[in-house]
Design goal:
Number of domains: 2
Cofactor: [4Fe-4S] cluster
Low-confidence stretches: none
Order of helices and strands: HEHEHHHEEEEEEHHHHHEHHHHHHHH
Mean pLDDT: 93
GO molecular function: L-serine ammonia-lyase activity
Organism: Oceanidesulfovibrio marinus
Pathway: Carbohydrate biosynthesis; gluconeogenesis
Family: Belongs to the iron-sulfur dependent L-serine dehydratase family.
């Protein structure tokens, strides 16, 4: 099996919600196409370029309005990148409805929201359910140049016609949890965080201090999303009329006299806070996706503020979470359009359980067992956003995922670790097979589950 060669900061991407596949990925694709257009030689074209047209397919077409995909595409074509766009960019664009000029080999072309369309009929021949096509057209609509992109999950994009990028060799080859465990048991004294950081340095050319600084940036962005969510209140955007709950939940947490209820309330409040910020289209961290962006920050917040763990413990925990997320991306998927919510909140819970176990100083066996339990008990979870908005059931599902992550850690740290029956690799295989067999209407199309029953009843 090929080794994992994905950067930590492709897994942990900072950008606007509410969906990494539907906002961050399409924004990156739009920016990439804009960059390509700037270098085109228009003199060889069979026509005069007039506009840039974008066509969304598959899940992007089915839920694009609710997920903000059209505005994310427009922002990317307008020159914005997820990493540095305004926090509230997807709030402001619908009001402004701008028309952007795009450099074109010495000339200029234009695009606006009216140039972005959705094709919900083309489904069966798609190579990937999150597909979008950019077209440079003339005044009569004739295509002069085009490019297809796939938003493959977690904010990552792929061009089917592009050659495979050169990937640097990593010092520690692993593609499964079993192989990762073998590296740790080889007697060379390596720790999990050292393996993750050294591989990252080899892949990106960054120094160890640079990688550690990047991890700190990720943790800070997660914490910021929680703090913003705890301070906000009112109705979330969209037609559902859903009100934020995190601030009220946090007040209840601070007032409750029951010690047994405090931790549960804290987990819920923190997870809801980040998930509500995501639902508002504000900046979050993909962990592993925007739709699951409340789970890991909730656990990290509890580790820092309730457990009083040092920052180094959070960084080491984040490396364990990264290992889990990278393994799932490598061997299955984290895209709701491919495997349902088991690949989003399920994987987020698995990552969070591993983070907590590692941050608390437990062995690799406990880290793996905690991650496996959290993933196992999300198997089969569908992705059925009501009206296509990442609100119902997505926001509360983040809180449920955080609680399951904590309980998975409790069970793993309390059992005899050698008595744990299911391996992490086995759970990932099961998740991939379940996602493959899952009916399309339960995979981020808003055609089944709660998305259907909320409309039909």
């Amino acid at each position: 099996m090929s080794p994992i060669t994905t950067s930590l900061f492709e897994l942990f991407t900072i950008g606007p919600g509410p969906s990494s596949s539907h906002t961050i990925g399409p924004m990156r694709a739009g920016y990439d196409f804009r960059t390509e257009l700037a270098s085109l030689n228009t003199s060889d074209m069979d026509g005069v370029p007039a506009r840039v047209r974008t066509v969304l397919y598959g899940s992007l077409a089915a839920t694009g309005e609710g997920h903000g995909t059209q505005w994310a595409v427009l922002a990317g074509l307008g020159g914005m990148r997820p990493e540095n766009c305004p926090t509230d960019v997807l709030d402001s664009l619908p009001e402004e409805n701008p028309e952007y000029e795009i450099p074109l080999g010495g000339a200029v072309t234009k695009t606006s929201r009216q140039d972005i369309t959705s094709d919900t009929l083309r489904v069966l021949d798609l190579e990937h359910p999150n597909t979008l096509v950019f077209q440079l057209i003339d005044a009569d609509g004739k295509v002069l140049h085009e490019a297809e992109y796939q938003s493959i999950g977690g904010g990552s994009i792929r061009r089917p016609d592009a050659p495979a990028p050169h990937v640097a060799d990593v010092p520690h080859d692993y593609g499964t949890m079993r192989q990762l465990r073998a590296l740790l048991q080889a007697g060379n004294g390596l720790t999990l965080d050292q393996i993750i950081i050294q591989n990252e340095c080899a892949l990106t050319g960054a120094s160890e201090d640079g990688v550690l600084a990047g991890l700190e940036t990720v943790l800070a962005a997660m914490e910021d999303a929680v703090h913003r969510g705890l301070a906000a209140e009112g109705e979330l955007p969209g037609p559902l009329g859903l009100y934020r709950k995190a601030k009220a939940m946090f007040k209840r947490f601070r007032k409750t006299p029951l010690a047994s209820a405090q931790l549960m309330l804290a987990l819920d409040a923190y997870a809801l806070a980040a998930a509500e910020e995501n639902a508002a289209g504000h900046t979050v961290v993909t962990a592993p996706t925007c739709g699951s962006a409340g789970v890991l920050p909730s656990i990290a917040h509890v580790m820092k503020y309730q457990m009083k763990l040092p920052q180094d413990a959070l960084r080491r925990g984040l490396c364990a979470a990264a290992a889990v997320g990278l393994l799932v991306r490598h061997n299955a998927s984290v895209a709701g359009a491919e495997v349902g919510c088991q690949g989003e909140v399920g994987v987020a819970a698995s990552m969070a359980a591993a983070m907590l176990a590692m941050g608390r100083g437990y062995t690799m066996h406990v880290v793996e067992n905690a991650a496996e339990s959290a993933l196992e008990h999300h198997l089969g979870l569908t992705c059925d956003p009501v009206a296509g908005y990442v609100q119902i059931p997505c926001i509360e599902r983040n809180a449920m995922g955080a609680v399951k992550a904590f309980n998975a850690f409790v069970i793993a740290s309390s059992e005899v670790e050698q008595h744990h029956m299911v391996g992490f690799d086995q759970a990932v295989i099961a998740m991939a097979e379940t996602g493959h067999d899952m009916n399309r209407k339960y995979k981020e199309t808003a055609l089944g589950g709660l998305a259907a029953s909320m409309v039909n009843c």
